[in-house]
């Protein structure tokens, strides 16, 4: 079965401004002054000590934008982080939020923006379109090439009281502006570079093979994830081309700015894709795996991707064949299934070049947890509905078993 966008629809959501290029962080003050005068700048302890961060604060100062810094952002964004930020700054008359760092820093900025503007507890906004009004303006400045959080209407939160990952999906989370400066990734540790790039590759693959939903006008206005379409495909293709060209170069020489720029632009493309299509089975299954594995999110979805791609192959063969052609490992005169398998194999090569694990045993997932993981993954209905192959207990358990056994044979049924 081939995926069918019957409407010929093209649709994306995006920030008002996106500024990309080496050194563009120096424009932060000029961009900020048009949005506010009292900025809350959110980052983590490591980034706060860097010359680059201090330079960004100086840029704000030159434009008479007062900056209050919160530098205690934590990985996997715990709810307690959001509660602390809101309690510290609720009465500070902040009118702009700037997130500088990885995905958790930017998600903290986005969630702080909506709670500071609308009140209540962040739990009030878990789910889809539950934010009652606009947040404070947000500028997102990513320092890793992978999450795409600088352009998405999504924030993922670990509720450290309920021990569950929760998501807010709402157009009010969309950053007003993104400044994407590849120079900020030059000091990114090798492991983090690999994990975030693996995450971006999974976004591109899942976005390109997601179901077209042929949404109604009402669904476009009320749903974040409205399916694969003509415009998201353009971002997918460009992102895959750049990853194919430069992932190996980044691994070989982390100081290669051109390669870093390619990977960061690919991650931006991936963010633009998932902001509209959403992700699918690999992300749905990884979320409950996080309770049993300490592997970074990007390595978790990367370890699942080979098996999810095989599950989906019969349902989107032409899309995987196009991936094969885009990645330069397939020719149009070859049988379509051969092209598709070559595309899947090349995605695995890119993940392997990053040093990403390609089986579940490597990220310490155990068979005794499969049932719980499968049951929980099926509750992520927005992601389940995106996946081209039906997600059932049987199919998810098959993915988990094959992933644990590193069984990358070509299978046509669970």
From TrEMBL:
It catalyses: a primary alcohol + NAD(+) = an aldehyde + NADH + H(+). Keywords: NAD, Oxidoreductase. PROSITE patterns: ADH_IRON_1. SUPFAM superfamilies: Dehydroquinate synthase-like. It comes from the Bacteria. Its cofactor is Fe cation. Residues 228-402 form the Fe-containing alcohol dehydrogenase-like C-terminal domain. This is Alcohol dehydrogenase class IV. Residues 15-182 form the Alcohol dehydrogenase iron-type/glycerol dehydrogenase GldA domain. The lineage of its organism: Bacteria, Pseudomonadati, Pseudomonadota, Alphaproteobacteria, Hyphomicrobiales. It comes from Roseiarcus fermentans. Belongs to the iron-containing alcohol dehydrogenase family. GO terms for molecular function: alcohol dehydrogenase (NAD+) activity; metal ion binding. InterPro entries: ADH_Fe/GldA, ADH_Fe_C, ADH_Fe_CS, Alcohol_dehydrogenase_Fe.
């Amino acid at each position: 079965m081939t995926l069918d966008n019957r409407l010929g629809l093209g649709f994306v959501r995006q920030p008002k401004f996106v500024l990309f290029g080496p050194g563009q962080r120096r424009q932060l003050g000029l961009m900020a002054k048009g949005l506010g005068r009292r900025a809350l700048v959110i980052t983590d302890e490591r980034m706060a000590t860097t010359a680059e961060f201090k330079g960004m604060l100086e840029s704000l100062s030159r434009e008479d934008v007062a900056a209050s810094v919160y530098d205690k952002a934590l990985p996997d964004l715990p709810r307690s982080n959001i509660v602390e930020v809101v309690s510290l700054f609720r009465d500070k008359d902040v009118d702009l939020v700037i997130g500088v760092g990885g995905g958790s820093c930017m998600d903290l900025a986005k969630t702080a923006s909506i709670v500071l503007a609308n009140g209540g507890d962040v739990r009030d906004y878990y789910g889809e379109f539950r934010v009652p009004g606009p947040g404070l303006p947000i500028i997102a400045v990513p320092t890793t090439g992978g999450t795409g959080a600088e352009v998405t209407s999504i924030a993922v939160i670990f509720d450290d009281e309920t021990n569950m990952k929760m998501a807010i999906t709402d157009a009010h989370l969309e950053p007003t502006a993104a400044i994407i400066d590849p120079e900020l990734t030059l000091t990114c540790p090798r492991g983090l570079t690999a994990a975030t790039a693996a995450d971006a590759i999974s976004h591109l693959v899942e976005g390109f093979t997601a179901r077209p939903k042929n949404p109604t006008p009402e669904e476009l206005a009320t749903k974040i994830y409205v399916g694969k379409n003509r415009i998201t495909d353009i971002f997918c293709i460009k992102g895959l081309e750049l990853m194919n060209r430069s992932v190996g170069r980044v691994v070989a020489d982390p100081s290669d700015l051109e390669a870093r720029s390619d990977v960061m632009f690919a991650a931006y493309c991936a963010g633009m894709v998932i902001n509209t299509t959403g992700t699918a089975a690999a992300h749905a299954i990884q979320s409950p795996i996080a309770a049993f594995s300490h592997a970074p999110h990007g390595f978790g979805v990367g370890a699942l991707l080979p098996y999810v791609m095989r599950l989906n192959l019969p349902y989107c063969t032409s899309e995987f064949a196009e991936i094969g052609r885009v990645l330069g490992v397939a020719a149009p005169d070859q049988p379509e299934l051969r092209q598709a398998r070559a595309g899947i194999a090349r995605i695995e090569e890119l993940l392997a070049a990053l040093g990403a694990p390609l089986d579940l045993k490597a990220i310490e997932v155990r068979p005794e947890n499969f049932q719980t993981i499968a049951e929980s993954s099926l509750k992520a209905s927005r992601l389940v509905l995106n996946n081209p192959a039906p997600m059932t207990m049987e199919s998810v358990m098959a993915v988990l078993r094959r992933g644990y056994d590193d069984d990358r044979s070509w299978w046509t049924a669970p």
